[in-house]
Amino acid sequence: MRTATITRQTAETEISVTVNLDGTGAYDNQTGVGFFDHMLDQLARHSLIDMTIRAKGDYHIDDHHTVEDTGIALGQALAQALGDKKGINRYGECHLAMDDAQVRCALDLSARPYLIWNVAFEAQKIGTFDTELVREFFQAFSTHGGITLHVDQIHGFNAHHVAEAAFKSVARALRTAVETDPRKADAIPSTKGAL
User: Residue 9: phi, psi to the nearest 5?
Assistant: First the structure.
């Protein structure tokens, strides 16, 4: 079973993340940040990775620590669940349209974290959620998941749609990357012999 549970506790947050890479996209995410929960639900549903996330943070300051630390824990859980990465496709990509927004994602589960982020929000808030936290989440997720992650906004003006298209695009690319390649199910997908 490609599953993992990560707990993270600091003076700012308490996070628990459980993932199952071979799930059906079931989710139960409660971070105390409504819009962020909605985005995490999309990430689970469209990657087919089961996710249960619980987070408590210093909301009296803002949502930054909660969102970032959830990204850290989710990245760590993904890396742990992947293990030695034997048999995975490794790469994934997706062009995803959502109304006015189109976002492209390409990723590599390379253990070499790198984020390219070409997404610009016309609004600073989606409800009470700071749009700059979308990048903060993906920075933490890519760093701690060992993911080379490129996210590019092709177009879009509605901040909700752009953010949701980003999460869904990453989710669909991730779905492809973590799946087993039936032609090489017993091999590490690298000429180095390790990832």
Answer: -130, 125
